[in-house]
Amino acid sequence: MSATRSFSDMHPVWGLMRRVAVNSFAYRVGASATLVNPGGEIEKNFAWNGDQAIAYSKQLWKSDCAPWQANYLETKLTRRGLINCEYGPKLKSFPYYEDASVILGALRTFITAYVDAYYPSDDAITADKELVAWFHEAARAADIVDFPASISTKSELVAVLSHHAYLISILHGSLNSNSLLHYSGVLPMHPFSLYKPLPKEKGVSSLVPFLPDLGASIHQIALVATFN
To answer: What is the C-alpha to C-alpha distance for residues 100 and 201, in angstroms, rounded to an integer?
Structure first.
């Protein structure tokens, strides 16, 4: 929303952001209307309601997930000791980073060329009032945690736009890829809810009473297929 208020329709940065983030804002509207609304899909399929889901999301947002620059891919993984670790052995295999770093590298290459095409120098960055206004509003009025409050170089713009693209494509895609349907939709191995109170004693002979019936199973599969 801060970008919407700060950029004119023909601004090159706004054009790139709209292309990269196509339907992102629409998803938020759709989720409010069909997922977390009273009687919505969250309430129908899970053991909690939409308000509780929103409260959890807010709690998660206020944790380590919120900061912008601190969660740049390499910065975050280094902080967690997963790459460039100085106090432990190197991971023998890290498939997520091995793939994500290649994709992010390609995104950075494209975004760098894009920025170079419109900004011949760092002075052109600071002279762009709309761009400067966006950084100012995003860090202050929009209160994006750890978002840079000012900008003075092309490399800073590339870093911000690359992280924006990373969040929407790589990170979101890794959490919401085909595995959502192929694995999360598999019953009885992955029910969204249990349909009977948890037993208080050992010796349960059958798990069937705890699982969704045919109607609830179809509803769960349809939900994950729709939002896959």
So the answer is: 45
